[in-house]
Amino acid sequence: MRLAVANLKGGTGKCxxxxxxxxxxxTGLPHTIEQVVxxxxxxxxxxxxxxxxxxxxxxxAKIDSGEQPCLRVTFSSGxxxxxxxxxxxxxxxxxxxxxxxxVGETAALPARLPFPSEPVELPGPEVDLLAILxxxxxxxQRSVRFSTTDPEILExxxxxxxxxxxxxAKVSDRGCDYRxxxxxxxxxxxxxxxxxxxxxxxxxxxxxxxxxxxxxxxxRYYGHHQAPSIARTLQRRHGLDGRLAKTKxxxxxxxxxxxxxxxxxxxxxxxxxxxxxxxxxxxxxxxxPLLRAVQHLLLRFGIQSKVAGFQAGLNGRRxxxxxxxxxxxxxxxxxxxxxxxxxxxxxxxxxCESTGRNANVGDPSGSSVLRAQLRQLTPDRRAARxxxxxxxxxxxxxxxxxxxxxxxxxxxxxxxxxxxxxxxEVFDYAPVYGWLWSDDLFWDRITSIESAGSQHVYDLMVExxxxxxxxxxxxxxxxxxxxxxxxxAARGRTLLVDADPQGSALAWSEQAGEGGDFPPTVIHWPxxxxxxxxxxxxxxxxxxxxxxPPSNDALVRQALLCTDLLLMPLAPSLLEVAxxxxxxxxxxxxxxxxxxxxRVLLVRVRAGTRSSRDARxxxxxxxxxxxxxxxxxxxxxxxxxxxxxxxxxxxxxxxYAGVLAELLAVDHPGGTDYA
Length: 675
What we know:
This protein is α+β, with helices and mostly antiparallel strands. The protein has 22 helices and 26 strands. Helix content is 30%, strand content 24%. The strands form seven sheets. Strands 23-22-24-1-25-26 form a six-stranded parallel sheet, sandwiched between helices. Helix 2 (124-136) packs parallel to helix 6 (259-273), helix 14 (479-489) packs across helix 22 (655-664) and helix 17 crosses helix 19. The longest helix has 15 residues, at 259-273.
């Protein structure tokens, strides 16, 4: 058998809206995914490895998928992300499409993010002054001012200004307002303005001995310019000059700070604009982007928080504002990482030493699938005495007894991670479910799922993990070719040709080969002469499987010229059914030269769902009701084993055994009417 497995063009619909933010692990700077796709400068992205650890990996491909229908998923923490309908999210029962999520369920978010691998330090005084000006500074006034009643903040601002060559003076009309004055000397350049703006200056027309003017020589400054203000220069360098409170954003330099300087910045910033109330450390700002940047930066210390909007009032005027609150289970981490002082520190100490804090947030939801799995694993109380028992779980937790129902929180329905860990460690299920209590994952509850209309979307291909962090959410990005190649290898010598420039199948085989045998021979040939190369070696093999890439019609045509059967795996979504066109166009072009039989395979199917029934009807029904395509009766269910099989040699082909049997029964080459 010679089989080509076609990946649909455009990354099979798993894409994000253009404004989705992705972090550069090297610099720590956020970029929109549109900027990442269009800019070659960002080459790495944060990913979730083995479902347990957030780390950085190279981006292997960047895909512009054009306009597609989207959904906006919003979480209890205030984070949101806009994705295509088929984009998978990591749920407690495995990866699941966006259009299959339900409000009230929890999805995986990173509990912590790494600091930049290439940090850039700022002078300590500049860090302090930048935090003060960002929080309390008037950046839109003619002079640079800030307000404070905290003696420590005033002392830090005065010391920082002194080091930078400026001075702090009290403004007479208000008791808590201060002005930063002082101008930086600029090296004189004949004929250019001394403020550093670069404008040419005119010569003096009249000499003035008192002021040092000499007729014919260039003036010191252009027009009314003068030596630059030190504080104003600092504001301009960090993008704060002229910003109102509601338009302030986090300076890029802050994202690049190492851990100790970021802690210093957030400490001063919190003492200026933050508070410690009965609900814990919090902050209220008029700028949503600035507050969300603070929420993101707290993740580098493993501090989870919630952002919500509210209506604030000032002098009888109402305006929108946003409030950040640190979750109770992160108060201790906040106290250890972000040093406060004075009354705020005392209140935080009292909160951390108090009891009765609700720490249920962050636990995975107990879906029906997960509940059924755990119910099946719970042994009968009458089990043999030599086997692990439920009492051992109780002893490990310090309880009097334990039963299945205690795995779940009665009020929220979530799985208690502490209880699940004890249960799995006693019965040796930790290798299967250990990722659910990973310290690097935070399970955030979905509060709304709404249509976001049609938007321009992009995708990033990441191997081998196939997922990345965007908007502080873990999101996903071929298995059919590998499973079928393994099944054919049991029937005869098999060649698996990886025609994908990403080298996904090759990387899979190399990783699997490190831990044992990988029967098919794997060759990486993403070349324009693919058909010629395969034709030269195909006689040495009983079976040839070609894994083709998305968004590369030329390689798909080459694969069709050297195979007699084309298999198109397709998720049960009407959106993906509509994406079959380019592949069928390619098959129609080579039909006259090389007839090919075509089969469509439904994959990632959830049994009994409307989406799977509608997709099959749309594929099989004759025109005009449907496409009238040859669709396989066998289908591949959405299984956890497929999601975790990467880098291994699966011995159980599961539904792919039925797929292979049906493919072997196909008469080929058969030719197909593509009209």
